[in-house]
């Protein structure tokens, strides 16, 4: 099924061609199929992927009436609370995903962690490892070949920059709807 964004369609094609995870907890869902657990936001968001295995979601923030959703900011809707700007647009989110780092968010924060470093210390030494994202190298190559983009070395830099750039409009929009959501965005 075609979506209103060619970039998301290309990601869906890549996704269909791999059998393993390429980003921790990430799975595409039907565009706009649900409200990501935040019904009060449903008229201004379009969820498109699970962000974690526990139910957090990535959604486009319909900040304005742009036709190509890939050019709109991407939000992280936490399953345990919290709504955060994660990227200025879909290509930035793809760089975050390609890092292989896992998101962890709450009402007052969203941070990405490289869980592979912790797991490396716990491996049994038999060399087979338990990589949660065995298709990540293929995803990185696809991102480079298709868009000329590299994986983020530290995805938190992208998240912080996007949050800072969009702080005022995000706070003005979400503050009246979910006052607790502005805590991690420097609301006055």
What does this structure look like?
The chain has helices at residues 6-16, 90-98, 115-120, 136-147, 155-165, 167-174; strands at 27-28, 45-50, 57-61, 74-77, 83-87, 102-106, 109-113. Helix 2 packs antiparallel against helix 4 (136-147) and helix 2 (90-98) packs antiparallel against helix 5. It is of the alpha+beta class and 188 residues long. The relative contact order is 0.16. The protein is built from six helices and seven strands; from the N terminus they run αβββββαββαααα.
E-strand count: 7
Sheet bearing the most strands, described?
Answer: 5 strands, antiparallel
Low-confidence stretches: 120-128
Overall radius of gyration = 16 Å
Distance between the termini: 43 Å
Give the strand order of the largest sheet, numbering strands 1, 2, ... along the chain.
Answer: 1-2-3-4-5
Q: Give the helix level as a range of percent.
A: 25-40%
Short description:
It contains six helices and seven strands, in the order αβββββαββαααα. With 188 residues, it is α+β, with helices and mostly antiparallel strands.
Keyword list:
alpha+beta; five-stranded antiparallel β-sheet; single chain
Can you lay out the helices and strands and say which pair or pack?
Elements: H1 6-16, E1 27-28, E2 45-50, E3 57-61, E4 74-77, E5 83-87, H2 90-98, E6 102-106, E7 109-113, H3 115-120, H4 136-147, H5 155-165, H6 167-174
Antiparallel strand pairs: 1-2, 2-3, 3-4, 4-5, 6-7
């Amino acid at each position: 099924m075609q979506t209103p964004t060619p970039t998301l369609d290309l990601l869906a094609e890549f996704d269909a061609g791999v059998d393993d995870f390429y980003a921790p907890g990430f799975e595409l869902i039907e565009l706009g199929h649900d409200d990501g657990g935040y019904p009060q936001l449903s008229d201004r968001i379009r969820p498109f992927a699970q962000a974690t295995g526990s139910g957090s979601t990535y959604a486009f923030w319909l900040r304005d009436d742009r036709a190509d959703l890939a050019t709109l900011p991407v939000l992280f809707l936490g399953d345990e609370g919290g709504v955060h700007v994660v990227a200025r647009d879909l290509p930035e989110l793809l760089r975050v995903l390609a890092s292989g780092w896992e998101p962890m968010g709450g009402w007052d924060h969203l941070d990405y962690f490289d869980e592979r470093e912790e797991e490396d210390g716990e491996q049994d030494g038999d060399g087979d490892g338990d990589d949660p994202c065995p298709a990540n190298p293929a995803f990185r190559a696809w991102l480079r070949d298709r868009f000329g983009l590299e994986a983020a070395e530290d995805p938190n830099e992208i998240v912080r920059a996007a949050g800072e750039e969009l702080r005022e409009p995000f706070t003005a929009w979400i503050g009246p709807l979910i006052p607790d959501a502005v805590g991690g965005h420097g609301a006055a």
